[in-house]
Amino acid sequence: MTATPIDKTMPLANARLSHTTVFWIGFCAVMALLIAAPLLLPQFWSGFLTECLIWGLLAMSSDLLIGYTGMVSFGHSAFFGLGMYGAAGALILVSPPNLWLAIVFGLAGAAGAALCVAYFSTRLRDIYFAITTLIFAQIFYVIIFTWTAVTGGENGLIFDRPHFTIPFLVNVSFNSKTMHWFVLAVVAGSYLFLRRVTRSPFGMVLQSIRENEARTRAIGYPVERYKIVSVMLSGLFAGLAGVLYAVQKEFAAPDFVYFITSGDTVIYNVIGGIGTLAGPIVGAGFFQLLRQLMSEWFGDQFPYLIPLGIIFIAIIIFLPQGLLGFARRWLNR
Amino acid sequence: MSDTAQSAEPLVRVDDVHTYYGKSHILHGVSLQVAPGEVVGLLGRNGVGKSTTLKTIMGLVQPTQGSVRFGGNAITGLPPHKLARMGIGYVPEDRRIFRLLTVMENLRTGLDRNGVTEERRKTLLDKVFAYFPVLAERRGQAGGTLSGGEQQMLAIARAMMLEPRIILLDEPTEGLMPRMVSQIQRIIEALNNEGMSILLVEQNVPLTLAASQRVYIMEKGSVRHHCAASEIDVNDAVIKQYLGV
Amino acid sequence: MGAISQFLHAIPVDLLIIQTVNGIVTGMILALVASGLTLIFGIMDVVNFAHGELFMLGAYMGVIAFAATGNFWLALVLAALIIGLFGAALQIVTLRPLIGRDPLNTILATFGISLVLQNYALWQFGPVARKISEPISAEFTLFYLQYPWYRIVIALLSAAIIGCLWLFLKFNKFGVWIRATTQDRVMAQAMGIPVPLVYTGVFALGAAMAAASGVLFAPFGGVDYSMGLQWVLEAFIVVVVGGMGNLGGSIVAAIFISLLEAYAAVWLDPSQAVIASFVVLILTLLFRPTGLFATPK
């Protein structure tokens, strides 16, 4: 897809402000809004926003593969799900439940899954990679669904939300506001980290793999190693999203490991604009908002994925840079 | 010869064509003409845009600027399959035989058109088999199993199935044995005697000069020189530099 | 010796034979689905994610046409025709604009199509599976089972349809166009083959074959909105194991995979038996990425 990192190539109308300044002003403005949101929004919408941020993190992790390395993953549900079940394991087994341990367990679970996928991804491209990720995710789904003794099978696992602790300093229980701020901090931190990664020399190599894998290899870059690292990174952040979701919702369920989660992740990316990191977050918000609004207007049974699917196809055909890419182009005009 | 060719309505007329591959500017305003029944040579070093010129005429590459006319009609932007049906035959540089199709099936790709009667098919096939008896022998064999020279014959024969008014011939003797080269040269002459126009891209300068009535010399994506083939002096220093001989 | 004979004794021979028959029957239906998929892949370099949904819609169309006409075989033909036309329309509206763009776009677009079709089916037909009666009720005895002749007929019919496809590709003018375009689409265009039309035609053909398989499968598997994913995954596996774009390889691989799953189901839960074919796929991708039965292009 034509998803060059737009920040870099498009000149701004106002030439006096440097790109970096504009970015930080925009970033701070959005952060201020998101920090203020739970104070201003009713409880339901505030929780909704928290959830959107988590989906945004999942989408962003997948963008590292789709948008930057040029590999479509249809298996992000596996990383997300293992993050979720890893956190669940820590929260159930260890008493009192510890937030940081949940994160460590979740990331370890996601890293395990990512290692499997990464090992194969070094050899596969394009559709082969997409299918293999999908099939790995299905394998994890079947295991989680049928291994009832450990995973609770169809019913999933229920547990208590851990406290927010910093040893010897803080030990407070989460409420919906602090949960939101915690999620926001993690997502914003991940965004800045991934943004840094994609602009580093490492990120440039990933983009050159997307543009021309053979040439990148010919120049002498160990393409396989770069792909492994990008899959691992992507899997870890997807796992982190899974941990956050488990902590926020206080349950883990096999539905989240199913293909539908992976599919939604791809949709967030395409709608928001692949290769932009922020775009997928916008896409996730847009998707969840439309879904929520449609079920309020037309009832719970409304097949919201029909209109969303049509929007998705239309965006692929007419707006290959996604909503964010389109908005940026429109603003720069 | 060249004067009469110039004054008649050209069969192919390329006007100030600019072509890009991605961001690299390949053709910088190429103009050339081929009259009906004329063999025109296109000479120049490797990478000056000769093949791209042929691809642009065939509609395989779309020019960003300029026009291509064929038989008096503007054809810029038409899809290649329409141009093939209108009477432009294309023999690409690397021959591009359908390797898994038999010789006969390769020929069928050009024969299965509307309005080709059974009788006409037979005449056409008889004609190419007379030109290339070896293809008749190997008609059931997969294209990929033919030798290089045989593949070249098949590529020309396949283009002839379209009953074209012009054949765009890209490097037909590349990598062939000398015996094959002279055979290809005879084929070019024979086709021309039937009244077919040929736009010939070749590295083999003596062959091109012998086969063509006029030649264009290209450099860096545009035509630098054009004249009757007989006027070219291969020993001229400037010509030598253009051709890299 | 004792251990070996004990082991041999533990093998349920009768069950294995029954599973062999079952495996071949499902394998033939799978081969029909996969040959459409591999045809589309060969020509467009795109794995059609929506293929399972065309299978599923075909099955529903068969149920509807059967209810309307009362004739199963007529319903089969009608469903294949309707879904074939539908496939052509789908290709023209959604995939044709993407020709020449990064193949990633096409993969994503077919995924979008599958999403829309699946949710349409859920909305239109509801979550409850539908079943239609087998058009042939005769049975024969296979050990302790009364085995329906219908399943044997399905296997033969699938083989016949695949045979017709082969003849079509081999001798028909359009078939030669398809093969030429598969090998070299640029040269095919330069030879006057209307490649955009060939694309649409192949997509329609693949859709019709998927629909026919769906109808054939409906009497013994039931029809529900979510069946597409499972079939498309299996068909993917078959296409990869058989060698992308290799029709003969797909057929052999379909039977191989179905037999494997049928045998695995003797000892495992059916949902776990699927993993057996996943493992075959992963091994194939690792060691023979061009497929187990690849002929070099």
Question: Any overview of this molecule?
Answer:
The complex is a heterotrimer of chains A (333), B (245) and C (297). Chain A has 15 helices and 4 strands. Chain A has helices spanning 6-9, 19-40, 43-69, 76-93, 99-121, 126-146, 148-151, 176-199, 201-211, 213-219, 223-249, 259-272, 278-298, 305-318, 322-332; strands at 157-158, 163-166, 170-173, 251-252. Chain A has a two-stranded antiparallel ribbon. A two-stranded antiparallel ribbon of chain A has the order 2-3. In chain A, β2 (163-166) and β3 form a beta hairpin. Chain A is globular, with a radius of gyration of 20 Å. By secondary structure, chain B is of the alpha/beta class. Chain B has helices at 2-7, 50-58, 80-86, 103-111, 118-131, 133-137, 148-160, 178-193, 205-211, 237-243, and strands spanning 12-21, 24-34, 39-43, 65-70, 73-74, 88-91, 166-170, 197-201, 214-219, 222-228. In chain C, 51% of the residues are buried. Chain C has 297 residues and is mostly helical. Chain C has helices spanning 2-10, 13-44, 51-69, 72-95, 103-125, 149-171, 173-183, 185-190, 195-221, 227-242, 247-267, 270-287; strands at residues 139-142, 145-148. Chain C has a two-stranded antiparallel ribbon. At the A-C interface, α6, α12 and α14 of A face α5, α10 and α12 of C.
Strand content of chain A: under 5%
N-to-C CA distance of chain A: 21 Å
Structural class of chain B: alpha/beta
Count the DSSP helices of chain B.
10
Described by its quaternary structure, the protein is heterotrimer
**C-alpha termini separation of chain B:** 26 Å
DSSP summary, beta strand count of chain A: 4
The arrangement of helices and strands of chain A along the chain is HHHHHHHEEEHHHHEHHHH
Helix-strand pattern of chain B, N to C?
A: HEEEHEEHEHHHHEHEHEEH
Give the DSSP E fraction of chain B (strand runs of 2 or more residues). Answer: 15-25%
The largest sheet of chain A, given as strand count, sense and whether it forms a barrel, is:
2 strands, antiparallel
What Rg of chain B do the Cα atoms give? Answer: 18 Å
Number of strands of chain B: 10
